[in-house]
């Protein structure tokens, strides 16, 4: 479960990135999964949410998802188009670090 200011927006972002669908949705809570009734990742509204400032230890990451991909360039294009932003993009390291639309860091691992 991830805290965020807009659970519908963040749920839609991760549903698209992970190839899932929204399985539950109300004003303050969204759940995504691969099929109806399957609760795999949830998003909860936090009106006082402050995103981490990775890698700043004064505002550390609350979570960190690693998403394995076959084609990092295509996956990067997709997540940037969906609203992510690149935090660290070294070539040849096996991972790239991004912030989702609410500011949570996540990696594309290849």
Low-confidence stretches: none
Give the class from helix and strand content and strand pairing: alpha/beta
Encode the helix/strand succession as letters: EHEEEEHEEE
What does the average pLDDT come to? 90
Kindly report the spatial arrangement of strands forming the biggest sheet: 1-4-3-2
- Tally the helices: 2
Give the total of domains: 1
**What percent strand?**
25-35%
Task: Kindly report the CATH topology.
Answer: 2,3-Dihydroxybiphenyl 1,2-Dioxygenase, domain 1
Broad shape: globular
Radius of gyration, in Å, reads 14 Å
CATH architecture assignment name: Roll
CATH class: Alpha Beta
**What's the β-strand tally?**
8
Question: Biggest sheet: strands, sense, closure?
Answer: 4 strands, mixed
Cα end-to-end separation: 24 Å
Q: State the share of residues found in helices, binned by percent.
A: 10-25%
Query: Can you tell me the CATH superfamily?
Result: 2,3-Dihydroxybiphenyl 1,2-Dioxygenase, domain 1
Region (Disordered): 42-62
Domain VOC: 1-110
Organism: Blastococcus brunescens
Protein name: VOC family protein
Can you give a write-up of this model?
The chain is α/β, with parallel strands linked by helices and 110 residues long. It has one domain: 2,3-Dihydroxybiphenyl 1,2-Dioxygenase, domain 1 (Roll), CATH 3.10.180.10. Helix content is 20%, strand content 34%. It contains two helices and eight strands. The protein has helices at 7-18, 72-81, and strands at residues 2-4, 21-26, 29-33, 41-45, 65-68, 85-88, 95-99, 105-109. The strands form two sheets. It has a four-stranded mixed sheet, covered by helices on one side. The chain has a four-stranded mixed sheet with strand order 5-8-7-6, covered by helices on one side. The relative contact order is 0.21. The mean pLDDT is 90.
């Amino acid at each position: 479960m991830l805290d965020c200011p807009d659970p519908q927006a963040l749920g839609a972002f991760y549903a698209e990135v992970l190839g899932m669908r929204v399985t539950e949705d109300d004003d303050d809570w969204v759940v995504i999964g691969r099929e109806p009734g399957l609760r795999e990742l949830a998003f909860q509204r936090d009106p006082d949410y402050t995103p981490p400032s990775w890698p700043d230890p004064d505002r550390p990451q609350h979570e960190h998802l690693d998403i394995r991909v076959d084609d990092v360039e295509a996956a990067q294009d997709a997540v940037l188009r969906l609203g992510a932003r690149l935090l660290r993009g070294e070539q040849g390291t096996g991972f790239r670090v991004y912030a989702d639309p609410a500011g949570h860091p996540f990696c594309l691992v290849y």
